[in-house]
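Lab manual, section 2.4: Encoding a predicted structure.

Procedure: take the sequence of the chain (184 residues), apply the prediction step described in section 2.3, and record the output as structure tokens. A sample record is shown.
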Amino acid sequence: MLALRNEKRRLAWALTGSGHYLRECLDIIHTLEDVDLFLSRAAAEVLQQYGYTHQVGRVFHDKTASAVPVELFYHGVYHTVVIAPTSSNTVAKMVCGISDNLVTNVYAQAGKCRVPTIVFACDTGPELESEAPRENFVMVYPRRIDLENIEKLKTFEATTVVADMKELDAAIRARLAWLNVSSS
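Recorded output:
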């Protein structure tokens, strides 16, 4: 599959409605080149609520019922998808094959186009400290179903699930090195 008009293949990064390590994910995004950002409606709200900004050239918002931007996957524009941070709601939808918003459609189309996906799921342990808006931290206790869904997602083809920021950064760097793509 060839990218549109000799366009350099890019990394697609999707944000969900989770604030868990959102700032750290944005920090990683800002170190990368050739990244397109896909924002669910909830992600757009959370970015505003937390007061975070991004420095990415192309941003796709969840504004169409059929998730029009996923068409780019059919043209070979993306070499990798990162979904981070990933809310338990999005993980559950991905596990069940539901693609009813931009992020879940990105995941589905990446799979159908054999584009590997790296997922940083938020609910990875029995208890977590998570950042809340206005720099407050709260304890979060994922439900059994949330933890079970992460285990199921780990079995999906072309999907790498990571449990923390160190693993996320390492998985992205390993993928870029394998592709021989530089980061800034």
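Check your result against the sample. The CA atoms of residues 15 and 176 lie 20 Å apart.
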